[in-house]
Amino acid sequence: MDREMFHSCCSLVKIPRSSRQQQPGSSPHFVDYMERAAAYSRFLRNFLLPNQPCMFSSRFTQDWSCRRNWVTEEGKPNFQKLLQEFEDTPVPVANCSAKEYNANPKQIMPFREFIQYWREYIQNGHSSPRGCLYLKDWHMQRMFPEHNTYKTPIYFSSDWLNEYWDTIEVDDYRFVYMGPKGSWTPFHADVFRSYSWSANICGRKKWLLYPPGQEEFLRDCHGNLAYDVTAAALQDKGQFPHFQEACQPLEIIQEAGEIIFVPSGWHHQVYNLEDTISINHNWLNGCNLDVMWQFLQEELSSVQKEIEEWRDTMDTWHQHCQKHLNDSPEPLETTELLEKNT
């Protein structure tokens, strides 16, 4: 840690997090843009600790081999090169045209089958009877570590979450996304309320982001989070009684080569405006450890309330609560990471 960063930490760590976050009811109007490399302490001071989003210019990805090898001269996905690298690889593919609870159903298919679908989808005017398919949450880096397709920018390299999973060699939270124009991701916040960064290798995305706390206005009368924050149903006060209290989302158009930093707890919805390839990491460090720990505690409390009526009949009630939380999409093993780093 250099002297500038040390002084930044000392001054900012004393500021209560609540005073640095976007307050409910307020509306963010712009996002800061980092044109070229700056000191890590600036990123820490202006974005990590205040928990505010920002964008990085294409300068930060211009040397990545994937931007040369996966993209044609016209800026489109290079299907031929991609097939040479990943033809028989099984990949997870979501159907954006179908809803399963508050997400899209997924299937595993060979990479070549997805590329064949994608080519046909483009030829048919970006439509298909199979729906709009989106290759997402693919652990490409873990499957092909020798490819060296990109390098994590220094601003996101303090990553306790992936360091932990790398140590036990079980999993990671580094993903590749590939999807045609029109593919999208429903409204959500990132796993464990982690940070995330996402880099467009080619194509363009539209992001709709809401600061922490705003999601409470985007729940229906049953407490369920909205699936699509642009749906007309949200205007129905009987179904979404508090929607009118929500601020306007921060809308960002992300161009090819650019990187977006999404802070902890910022709910978002994302659209591919063109045929797009992107790389995404979820990550955690000391700056958002408290947010993650609070989220896990709240999730455990919810599980406990759900099975409270059986508490007196079970000698292992606490263990059952832990097991239920562990079986959820956001596994409890992450608490081991917290213990390891505190």
From TrEMBL:
Any single GO BP term: positive regulation of translational termination
Entry keyword Iron: yes
InterPro entries, per the entry: Cupin_8, JmjC_dom, JMJD6_ArgDemeth/LysHydrox
Signal peptide: none
Gene Ontology molecular functions: 2-oxoglutarate-dependent dioxygenase activity; catalytic activity, acting on a protein; metal ion binding; sequence-specific DNA binding
Annotated spans, Disordered: 323-342
Keyword set, alphabetical order: Iron, Metal-binding, Oxidoreductase
Catalytic reaction annotation: L-lysyl-[protein] + 2-oxoglutarate + O2 = 4-hydroxy-L-lysyl-[protein] + succinate + CO2
Gene3D superfamilies noted in UniProt: Cupin
Keyword Oxidoreductase: yes
SUPFAM superfamilies xrefs: Clavaminate synthase-like (SSF51197)
Cofactor: Fe(2+)
Domain named JmjC: residues: 141-300
GO CC annotations on file: cytoplasm; nucleus
Residue stretches in coiled coil: none
Domain of life where this protein originates: Eukaryota
Family indicated by similarity: Belongs to the JMJD6 family.
Database matches in PANTHER family: 2-OXOGLUTARATE AND IRON-DEPENDENT OXYGENASE JMJD4 (PTHR12480:SF6), ARGININE DEMETHYLASE AND LYSYL-HYDROXYLASE JMJD (PTHR12480)
Protein name: 2-oxoglutarate and iron-dependent oxygenase JMJD4
Species name: Astyanax mexicanus (Blind cave fish)
